[in-house]
Amino acid sequence: MLVALAANPRIRRLVRETVGGLPRQFWWLWVSTLVNKLGAFVITFLSLYLTTERGYSASYAGLVASLFGLGSAVAAVGAGVLADRIGRRPTLVAAQLGTAASTAVLGFVDGQVAIAVVAFLVGLCNNATRPATSAIIADLVPAEDRVRAYSLNFWAINIGFGLSAAVAGVIATQGYLTLFLLDALSTLICAVVIFIRIPETRPVQPPTAEKTGDGPAIGLGTVFRDGPFMAVVGLNLLLALVFQQSSTTLPVDMGAAGITATEYGLVIGLNGLLIVILQIPLTRWVEGRSRTGLLIASCLLTGWGFGLAALAGSSAWLFALSVAVWTVGEVLSTPTMMGLVAELSPAQARGRYQGVYSLSWSLALFLGPGVGGVVLQYFGAGVLWGACGVCGTVAAFGHVALARRTRSTAVTDRATEVTVPATEPAKAPADA
Questions:
Q1: How confident is the model over 52-72, as pLDDT tens digits?
Q2: φ and ψ at 243, to 5 degrees?
Q3: Is the dihedral of CA 9, 13, 14, 20 positive or negative?
Q4: Residue 252 has what pLDDT?
Q5: Hey, which end of the chain has fewer CB within 10 Å, N or C?
Q6: Which domain holds residue 182?
Q7: Does some domain include residue 368?
Q8: Residue 11 located in a structural domain
Q9: At residue 30, does pLDDT exceed 70?
Q10: Are residue 318 and residue 180 in the same domain, yes or no?
């Protein structure tokens, strides 16, 4: 059957249009991402390890998770700066080597303070890979193919996470130390692949860069003063806070509703399964469509997908429907947002821009569990899931306003060019 499918001209054309035309170096990066996520055992099982294997309290496990998120937030900005200053490849290789070393140490270290410090370092090194990876993709892949490239990279991440989560439980029965060491080994392999196969992609600074404002002279202050870009970051933070509820308040609410741990595993596993199945077809479907329309749809699907949980009661099937809806929103949102960020980022400052964008996810990882937990405890599940719907709606309206502002700015720029000779080509609207 597989041979027949491979021989089908339509299938071959679909595969060629989906994966064809991308640089060879991108595929080496894709392979390294897949291998890394296939071995990403520790993040998934860290809280369970601390409470069951080490006997620490749930509150201490939550503190360690927050410190991991804090390390991720620091790395988001710091690694972005390094990717622009010293290069994408050395930043990525150093981050992966640091992740491998700190993950291995975390498997041996004992004592609450020591574990907390090392967990912070794991979060710091682990998230330092994100700005450099995103910048490499933006450097390597032409603008018209970036959404497809980011989508394929997101696909690799979810395939890896899905398989690692399924296998990690079996490996953990042989001892949690094995998980830590295998995670470190997979990350070390990725560092070697990047070092050997991925060239430095940072654009060469032109001699006039300092005068024109292009290049590394663009500092973090410039990034934070970039109004349209920071609006995108703020809208993504709002949506990321909603996504964080899937691993924190959602299992708590489902448990309170009488959903068993097995049923929860099947329901939340639907997220990874649907991403693997839908990511490529939906990526093909979105090509040529309005980016603003896709972002609006993704915000509404995400927000009100979580909002459906308010109606689930004790039905695992309705919880599964909720997961299915917000998963479609996630599939639409992630590569589309990454493509938008790459477009808004000056070539010489892509590391900084990707780092600040990554900061929104790190802040959500740090703030989301606490905020969601407080709302669930003091106001109830209905208010929590309704608030998720409101956040999604606000984010959708935010993208509408941002698109209107961008179009208005573009019209003003074109009007100025009619009366004043332009010194450089006009920039296309962000929603082009």
A1: 788 888 678 778 877 888 888
A2: -60, -35
A3: positive
A4: 80
A5: N
A6: 25-200
A7: yes
A8: no
A9: yes
A10: no
| 187 and 226 assigned to the same domain | no
Q: Where are the beta strands (DSSP E) in 24-70?
A: none
Q: Which two tokens stand for residue 410?
A: 């573009």
CA 241/CA 336 separation, integer angstroms? 18
Cα gap 312→226, rounded to integer Å: 41
Degrees (nearest 5) of the Cα angle 289, 293, 295? 110
More confident residue, 215 or 323: 323
The domain boundary, picked from 200, 233, 253, lies at 200
50 DSSP 8-state letter = I
Q: What is the CATH number of the domain that holds 159?
A: 1.20.1250.20
**The residue to which tokens 């669930």 are assigned:** 376
Query: DSSP 3-state assignment of 254?
Result: helix
Task: Let me know whether 380 and 344 are in one domain.
Answer: yes
Which tops the pLDDT comparison, 188 or 275?
Answer: 188
Please name the residues in contact with 364: beta carbons below 8 A apart, sequence gap of 6 or more.
Answer: 237, 240, 241, 243, 244
**Helical residues (DSSP H) of 315-380, grouped into ranges:** 316-344, 350-379
Domain total in the chain: 2
Same domain for 177 and 233, yes or no, is no
Residue written as tokens 């390294």? 32
270 found inside a domain:
yes
**Do residues 10 and 148 make contact, with C-beta atoms less than 8 angstroms apart?**
no
Distances from the Cα of 430 to the Cα of 290, 293, 343, angstroms = 11, 13, 8
Residues 58 and 187 in one domain: yes
Whether residue 330 is contained in a domain is answered as yes
168 in the same domain as 241: no
pTM over 0.90: no
| 126 and 166 share one domain | yes
Q: What is the DSSP letter of 257?
A: T
Q: What percent of the chain has pLDDT over 70?
A: 85
Asked whether 240 and 234 are in contact (CB, 8 A), the reply is no
